Each structure stands twice: as structure tokens, then as C-alpha cells.
Amino acid sequence: MSNPLQQTIEALAKEKGIEADTIITAIEDAVLTASRKYYKTNENLRTRFNTETGQVDLFAIKHIVNEVTDPSTEIALAEAQELYGEEAEVDMEIEFPKRTDVLGRIAAQTAKQVIFQKVREAERENIFAEYNQRVGEVITGMVKRFEAGDLIVEIGRIEAVLPRREQSRAESYSPGERVRAVIKSVNHSAKGPQIVMSRTDAALLIKLFEQEVPEIYDGTVMVRGAVREAGDRAKVAVYSRERDVDPVGACVGMKGTRVQAIIRELRGEKIDIVEWSEDPITLVTNALSPAKVQHVEMIDDVERVMEVVVEASQLSLAIGKKGQNVRLAAKLTGWRIDIKSEEDKRKEVEAEFGALEAGAPVDGDEVANPEAAPVEGENAPAADEPAAGDQDNS
Fold first, then answer.
1. 69 lies in a domain?
2. Which of 198, 217, 244 is the last residue of a domain?
3. Cα→Cα distances 387→297, 343, 372, Å
4. Pairing label, strands 336-341, 305-310
5. Cα–Cα distance for residue pair 189/193, rounded to 1 Å
6. Could you tell me if 41 and 125 lie in one domain?
7. Which of 131, 157, 223, 294 is the most exposed, fewest CB within 10 Å of its CB?
């Protein structure tokens, strides 16, 4: 049967979620620290926990040498052989027991402090390691209190923080209320690991889709991109690995049940689900949903600029409230999107024709080919607009 101290160590290890060996090492280190303070010698001291007695044994370690230069850490071969016989050899170590019952109250207090510090450090490292592996995971916690606008959330036996900047403006919480958020980061701080949660990160949206849409969870449908303006609107681009599975339909669900569950969780945030495409023009067209696009032209594939033409009735829808729709579409696709109405585009082309008829200068290179000259000339107001030649198709 294990001794009382061993039982205490095992109970403490279970409570703190750390290994019993970590606590034993902490006890050994604590006694070693106290012993050095008490004995104040140059001896090479070593401690070892005795599982049978529940005590920490203290030893002074001496190296066997031919000629002693430091008596506190060395012992002559002849002397060692007197003690241990012919088995003693040069470079071997001999342990000489020392008393620990003389360490006293101050030494015991020092040992206690070292033990608590080591246990706390081990506990913090365990928490950091555990939650650092869970970054990007959605967890549920309970709102405990407020600190300068930040929410302190209880998750299991520890606390996490939901900073004000990571809270959706459409949401408010009260102490005791449950909150579901994504683990954004885990940082080291003076008080231990700081787990930062987020309700605004796009990762939360992706995880919610994984939970609500079986096709995403099993890998049939993939989320290729997600962007949010938390509390207002989000766009998600999805792709199906199987031809007979409609990725958008799978995410919307029967009568919109799947996406509605996510919208409720995000307190009414509007979500546009669009189909991903490797073709940039198709992707930009889809990303501007719910607006209907007439024509898309790639202006600059290096700077990643697209020009989009829509009917006048679709212009405000394509741009969105305060530019939100086109802004989210640009973030989702990675392209800068310039939206124009058909009327504006027509006026722009007419202005270009007018400038040419008035004798605007044309780059000599553009008229070098007689057959190409009329096409280039009709559509290019200036030589520094390389993509203008395609605009007559709009």
C-alpha cells in the first residue's frame, strides 16, 4: 500500500491534471533548494523521493578520482575501495546520505513555496499545450463577468477572454449566459495561459457549417473561403467534390433549415452562400450574389482588378449597403472589383469614341498593324490602358 504522501501526490496530480512524477520532481527540487540554503557547502547535493517511506532522501555525491583536488566533491580511489571494496573504480559516483530533519521551519517553508510554484508552472504548461492544439475549435462556455468591455468566460476549470473587438455588435450577454465561440489564440501571460475567444472570426462561421452540414463534415462539400462583417453579413464559398451534390443546396438545407440554424446562432447575420470556381471571372460573378451580373472583364491579372457591369436596377444591390456586398465579394475572391452600370459603361465608351473622333493621339505601336488598327483605335483612349481593347464586348 502506498504511503500517505504518495496518496496526497496522486490526488493533487489528478486534481491539477498533471503527472504525479511532475509533483515528485517538484518536491525533490524543493528539498534540494532548502538543503543548499541550510548546509551552505560546495558539496554536490542530490535528492531522491523514497516511495516506500514517503520521505525525500538527501545525498552528497562524490566522484572517485586518483588524486583529490576538491574534498567536498571528490574521494580518493583508495578510500573508496576501503568503503566498497574492489568494485570501486575511478569516475564512479558514491552517494553519502545527509540528514534532512535538521532543515527546520524556514527550509520547510521554502520547500513548500517551490512545490507550489513548480505545480502551478506544470499546470499552466498543460493548459497552454492543450488549448494551443485546439485553436480554431468551437467551444461553449459560461459568461462569468465583465472586465472593461471584455467578457470573461468560464470553460471547464479555467477562464478564457472574449475581447470587445472579438464580439459581434449585434450581440450582448449577461453573467451566467452560455456563449459559443471559436478559440482564436492562446498566449503566454504573467498570470498563465490566456485563451482568446472570438465571435467575429470567419473560423466560427466555417465550424458552424461543419456542425450543421453533414456533407461538409464528411468532406463531400468543402468550404473554400469565408468572410464576415460580424453582425451584418457574411459570404461563404463552397465547392463539391461530387458532381451530383449541389454544394449551395447542401448548405442551405431543406427549406433553408441548415443555414437558418447558423443565422440564429449568429443573431440574425445574413449569409450569402456561393459556389466556388477556379475561374476568377465565374468566382467574382458568383461572389456578387444576390446581384445579377451582366458582364465581367479582367482588367489587370497582376494587380488582380476586375470590371463588372450590371443593369441599373442591380447596381445598388451589387454594391450593397455602404459598399458591403462588393467589399465582402472582394475579400472572398481576392480581386479588386470595379462595378459600373450599363448606362455608365455606355457613356464611358461613347466618351472614348468622341475623344478618338476629335483626333486624340494614338500610340504608334497600335497602328503598326493596319488590320488591327480600327479595333484598337476605337476602344483605347490612351496607350496606358492595356485592357481597353476588350471593352467593345461589354
1. yes
2. 198
3. 9, 20, 15
4. parallel
5. 6
6. yes
7. 157
Tell me which H or E stretch contains 142. Answer: strand 138-147
DSSP for 108-121, please give it.
HHHHHHHHHHHHHH
CB atoms inside a 10 Å sphere around CB 141: 22
In terms of domains, do 160 and 75 share one? no
Distances (CA, A) of 366 to 358, 380, 390: 18, 9, 14
In this structure, is residue 260 part of a structural domain? no
Q: Is residue 261 part of a domain?
A: no
Per-residue pLDDT of the chain (394 residues; tens, 9 = 90+): 466 777 878 887 887 777 888 888 888 888 888 888 888 888 999 999 888 887 888 999 999 998 889 989 999 998 888 888 888 889 899 999 998 877 777 667 776 777 788 788 888 888 899 899 999 999 999 999 999 889 999 998 889 999 999 998 888 889 999 999 999 999 988 788 899 999 999 999 999 999 999 999 999 999 999 999 998 999 999 999 999 999 999 999 999 999 999 999 998 999 999 999 999 999 999 999 999 999 999 999 899 999 999 999 999 999 999 999 999 999 999 999 999 888 888 887 778 777 777 765 544 444 434 343 343 333 333 434 443 334 443 3
Which amino acid, residue 125? E
The residue segments making up the domain with residue 346 are: 290-394
C-beta separation of 275 from 283 below 8 A: no
Does residue 307 contact residue 315 with C-beta atoms inside 8 Å? no
234 within a domain of the structure (yes/no)? no
User: Is the alpha carbon torsion for 236, 237, 243, 248 positive or negative?
Assistant: positive
